Fold:
Amino acid sequence: MKQRHPVLMRFLDYAMMDTQSKGGVEEARPSSDGQTVMLNWIEHELHDGGVADDQRHRLKDSSLLVRFPGTKPGKTICYVAHVDSHPDAPGGAKCIVHDDYPGGDIMLPEGGTIIPATDVTVRFWVFLHPVFQATRSVF
Structure:
C-alpha cells in the first residue's frame, strides 16, 4: 500500500465520519452523535497541536471557532468547524484518492458517473481561490 501524507489521511478520516443530521430535532445542536464525535475530535487535535484553550470557542450552534494571531499587527485568522448536514444526505463519504492524477476526466466506480476535467479544475479553483487570497493578506 502506498504511504500517504498524514494531512491526507486526516482529511479522509474526517470525510468518512458519519455526521448526518437527525431529522426532527431542530433544537438540538449538534443533532447527532457523529457530529459531537467530530467536533470533539477536531477540538482534541487542536489542543494536541498546541492551540490554547482561550483560542477555541464552541458557539451556541455547536460550531467550533478558533482564533490564530496573524503575523501582521491587528490581523487574525479564524477557523470555523461547522458539522451539520441535511438529514437526507447520507453520512460517511466513500473516499477515492487518485494517486498521481494525470489530469483529464474522472470516472467514479459506482454508476459510472464521469466528472469532466473542466469541472474538476473549475471546482478546485472556485473553492480554493478565496482561501488563498484571504490568507495571503494576513501573512
